[in-house]
Amino acid sequence: APTTRRFKWDVEYIMWAPDCQQSVMIGINGKFPGPTIEANAGDLISVEVTNSMHTEGLVIHWHGIRQIGTPWADGTAAISQCPINGGETFTYEFVADKPGTFFYHGHYGMQRAAGLYGSLIVNGTDQQKEPYADEYDGELNMLLSDWYHENVYAQAAGLDGKGKHWEWVGEPQTLLINGRGQFDCSLAIERDRKTCDRRKTDAYCKEGDKSERCELIRRSECGPFCEGTQCAPVVFDVEPGKTYRLRIASTTSLSALNVHVEGHKLTVVEADGNSVAPFEVDDIDIYSGESYSVLLKTDQRPQAYWISVGVRGRKPKTPNALAILKYTTSKSEWPAAVPPATPAWDNVTRSKEFTYKIKAREGTPRPPTTVDRRILMLNTQNYVDEHIKWAINHVTLSLPNTPYLGAYFYGVESVAFDAATESPDTFDRGYDIKKPPEAQAPAAQAETAVSNRVYKVANGTVVDVVLQNANALEAGVSESHPWHLHGHDFWVLGYGEGMYEHDRDFKKLDVTSPPLRNTVVLFPNGWTALRFVADNPGVWAFHCHIEPHLHLGMGVIIAEGMERLHELNVPKEAVMCGQATRAAVPLAPATSPSPPSP
Ligand SMILES: O=C1O[C@H]([C@@H](O)CO)C(O)=C1O
Known about the structure:
Low-confidence stretches: 186-201, 220-227
Shape: globular
Number of helices: 8
Structural class: mainly beta
Radius of gyration: 24 Å
Bound molecules: ascorbic acid
CATH architecture of the largest domain: Sandwich
CATH superfamily of the largest domain: Cupredoxins -  blue copper proteins
Strand order of the largest sheet: 10-9-12-17-14-15
Largest sheet: 6 strands, mixed
Mean pLDDT: 92
CATH class of the largest domain: Mainly Beta
């Protein structure tokens, strides 16, 4: 039977050394990463969050949880709720609506990149059984992230800068596996885990090997990676002859990643809490905001193996992260070989091949075939008053001082944000996506608006979104963007190269076995089509999950089913700030929330 899982969290700054270098991070209950939440599908999760940071507000987003009937618990600052002020406590209550691999993270400023995240695992039940539930003996959990030595306040100030004061965050220093990484040392392989003895580099890098990895190892000044330190590599102990479900989620700030387990095949069974038709691969690509479960058979020689995680899609300056898969019967602590290489960062074709294999498992609901609304979203990088921003249909997102949900609930939308102008459903079809914005024909040139307007979507509407990628500011550059939708899963109907042409491309979309997901990649110079049903009244963010890109305005706001908002008991303490405090008459009585019935 569903139960209530109660957690009490104190969020505070902590000194921590995630990659052996001491930093200030945002921790939960004194630790980084935050505690893993585990629940059964249907359980009510109740997290009493106290903000002990005192110098900044706080919200926590439960990534992949749909928040059915509880839009105020989605944890998006200025969208679904007011930031929790320093010293204050807010209780998130929501139903873990279905089994899957999820995570939670800060969604205010760049708090995610400051280390505010952790795993959220929802187990299947008899009522909601995962179709592969009987195919594994044990579970392993891997939460991937990346880490910058520059603090997020400096990062944000750079991104907000004007003219020559604008500064890009660059590549992260370290990749982390379950919050652990090794700065500037392609690894821990230099040290013995138990004794902390320095090992001979030559055993791993032959004399004369000038590869970046070996150069890094030789130069490294890393602290001891012995057991017990905060940056010791993660060791997954496994029994031979079993099948494990390896859960992998990525909450990176920037990096797209590849995960390779030395000597083992991986069978993908879950993506973002949805079952996919199983397929076997040597390694997986994972973009920020995505999660997967893979089945791994411990059918190899009983020894220790590397798990290697490397950067994809951007020219990496970041060494691979390494963890160890160790058979309980292994005679040695350490893998014998050099860590396996992950695929070349610029091999996009390989990433597409992996992504296109993801299809719904039989039994997955199919999308409705009648579409009520189509929104084309052109993704561009633009100069706005000497600032570099990202824009969707020439609008760059700027959040209001009043959470949209509160503005709607208290009927102050016209003063709280630009409620009069709708976000545009399309863009000039003459726009040449192979060229930078300033090289466009005059007709396709458009001023980029800095705006807090929304897409108003009526309850029950079936919405198609086609994300259209384009060239960035620099000629010849187009990047990958993982787009994440709050409050929903959507069907991924298809991907294509170049410009989406409705008459040609719409009929090729897959409506028979499209996977359900909450995050999807938009590949360089291409398009991605998805469909969702607006059946969950709330104000939902839909945005690029790259933290600095969201900060630069790469997102839109969907005000969904606002005509039914009065049916929900939006708690006053969630949304009473900004203009909402001046509202004379709330649209609905501001009562305490009745906990959603699981
Ligand atoms: O948003 C970005 O800005 C930089 C670059 O385009 C401008 O310096 C980069 O690589 C991004 O992804």
